[in-house]
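Obj: model holo form, ligand = iron/sulfur cluster.
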Amino acid sequence: MKKGLLLCVCQGTCPSFQKMNIFEVGNAIRREGIVDFIAIHPQLCADDGDVFLSTLTQNNREIDKLYVAGCAPIMQQKMFRDAFERAKFDKTKHFGVDIRNMSTEEAVNAIKKLIEEN
Ligand code: SF4
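Output (holo structure tokens):
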């Protein structure tokens, strides 16, 4: 079973993500080797984000834990609910962390903390 991390950045234009280098955030986590895959998506809560999520998680695939760094976890839960239900993905395997307004280092640390605790 695999652990994956998705980084979501509000199209890359939202001021909340301007303090960090999202590519370096992903690279730092890759270098740690604490997840099996990483992807950056521009807008997971858009229609094509729904398609991305439901395709990725279809019937739970091999995904044991899906970490999503972006907006507030409670917002993620609401916005991803339909996609997970469509895919029959167990939503308790989704773990969100809010990285808005963080620097690269702060975002990396917040993601590492999420992964360590879940
Ligand atoms: S899921 Fe959250 S972080 Fe991603 S685009 Fe939507 S509001 Fe922004």
